[in-house]
Amino acid sequence: MPDVLHGVGVGVGIVVAPLVKMGRPPELPSARPVVDNAAEAALASGALAAVSADLAARSLEASDPTASAVLDALSMIAADPTLSEQVEELIAARTDAPHALFNAFEGYRQMLTEAGGYLAERAGDLADIRDRVIAVVLGMPMPGIPTPGHPFVLAADDLSPADTSGIDTSVVLALVTERGGPTSHTAILARALGLPCIVACAGVMHIADGTIVGIDAGAGTVETDPSVDRRRALRAEADSIVAELGSLTGPGRTADGHPVGLLHNIGSVADLECVDHEHFEGVGLFRTEFLFLDREDAPTFEEQRAAYAAVLEAAHGKKVVVRTLDAGADKPLPFLEMHAEPNPALGVRGLRIGRARPEIIQLQLAALAAAVADVPGSDVWVMAPMVATVAEARWFSEQAHAAGLDTVGVMIEIPAAALRAGEMLDVVDFLSIGTNDLSQYTFAADRMEGTLTELLDPWQPALLSLIAMCAEAGIEHGKPVGICGESAADPALSTLFAGMGITSLSMSARSLPQVRRALSKRTLDECRQLVERALAAEDAALARDAVVNG
Ligand code: PEP
Ligand code: MG
Asked: Is 185 a known active-site residue?
């Protein structure tokens, strides 16, 4: 019998392939005397330049625009003159290149952490860049994704954005991590890439490189060294899942035909390029802030109008839910000129910016209305992020109507808003639940903090209760309530949400077939029974177990 390791499966899919572990970061050797300052400085600056160039090259190769932007940002950090100046100073004080780099990166990390907000989020990537640079200085293989020359299952302690931005899905067939949880970066990436994945899989890093493993994401299992017969059985099962995913088409619905809209999360028109229009039901979340980030001035009316019109054109008359600017202290925009806040996640962000600076949201709504006029037959729904009170919802609705937009909603991302979902629906046409932030604010757990993944697990019964309350309010008002956070892409959760009365689920394109398949396997009545079981569970693991194995 092969050994079986258990973890938390993300998505569905079965893969049988050799396992290869992620390159480990280099160990810092003992300090050595510096004999030639100039040579030492050249060694360090050459390594920084090589890593920066490598990241930039990988950015060009990355097919996903988000991955490419992350790699560009990391490449710029490696090339930052502040960093190289610190390294030079340390070397001038007779520190060897590896230690000078290590210490300079530590200083840089502290600087970013103290800056807070968006910059502090980037601090987590620094250790990864540092390890790459030190590996180059020591003449060791670059830590990161291995290149064994054949397709493989990638195993790692956990995966950072810098590692995963370079993943080539023609060779990396599945991901397994020792740590992490269902909302960790690895899980989010696996959903975006459509890769079978198992997180929190204790013991996976003890498997020897090259061992054949059978990964079953649906079951959350890793079988080591399965017999030839077992491999054959696993491959047959894998083929039948792939065939089933490919054969299921049309709109999202339960086994007995109850509709649950399956929509796309997008950041720009590029995300709609590969959409199969035959099965496309629309966009459930268009994150417009990507237009505003990384620039000194606000985008003009015409720039915004053109960007929105391009998305409406590409949607071919299907519904497009546009979210107004969701930025603020945690994603600072230079032109907002806002002061630093001690708790950016609790500061002036989302709709609060619109309230403080109405001209920004008014320009955005006017540009959106102009785009609607430019694209006859378009179906635009507009919603505001980070709404806390009914008064805010009413204010937003008035602004949107004044701009000439008819279908207006709000995101439910703050528990206060979920608790008043019914009253919100008295003043708006629809709700869209952003479970990423709703988890963060319900559990007082920073969504960027990897060690809090247990609290951020979307199966937490308290989060499920809030979602159920919103769904009930939607049923009472006869108005749509969708979900557009990461949890919408979890196939097992989708059946639970359908049972609650959620009307649509919005996710990355790759997650859609799995969710469509999960919904098609249960009747609405069965989905409703799952809700009772999940809400009665004491914790996230038991709630998940009640739905997946119940
Ligand atoms: C959310 O919070 O769930 C959401 C969809 O918004 P974002 O992830 O962009 O904050
Ligand atoms: Mg959010």
From this structure: yes
CATH code of the domain made up of 37-137:
1.10.274.10
SS3 10: strand
Ramachandran sector of residue 201 (left: φ over 0; alpha: ψ -120 to 50; beta: rest): beta
Burial degree of 445 (CB within 10 A; 0-12, 13-18, 19+): middle
CATH value of 255-548 in 3.30.230.10, 3.20.20.60, 3.40.50.300, 3.40.50.720: 3.20.20.60
The pick from 292, 436, 507 for probing ligand 1's pocket by mutation, whose C-beta has the most ligand atoms within 8 angstroms, reads 436
Distance from Cα 4 to the centre of ligand 2, integer Å: 37
**Residue 197 among the catalytic residues:** no
Q: What is the pLDDT of residues 176-218, one digit of tens each?
A: 999 877 766 678 778 878 889 998 899 999 999 999 999 999 8
Per-residue pLDDT tens digits for 36-59: 999 999 999 999 999 999 888 878
pLDDT digits (tens, 9 = 90+) for 482-526: 999 989 999 999 999 999 999 999 998 888 999 999 999 999 999
Q: With contact defined as beta carbons under 8 Å apart, do 299 and 292 qualify?
A: yes
Q: Of residues 99, 185, 264, 477, which has the active-site annotation?
A: 185
The b-or-e profile of 174-188 (16+ CB within 10 A means b, else e) is: bbbbbbbbbbbbbbb
Ligand 1 contacts (CB < 6 A) are 285, 287, 326, 413, 434-437, 484-485
Does 3.10.20.90 match the CATH number of domain 4-23+144-245?
A: no
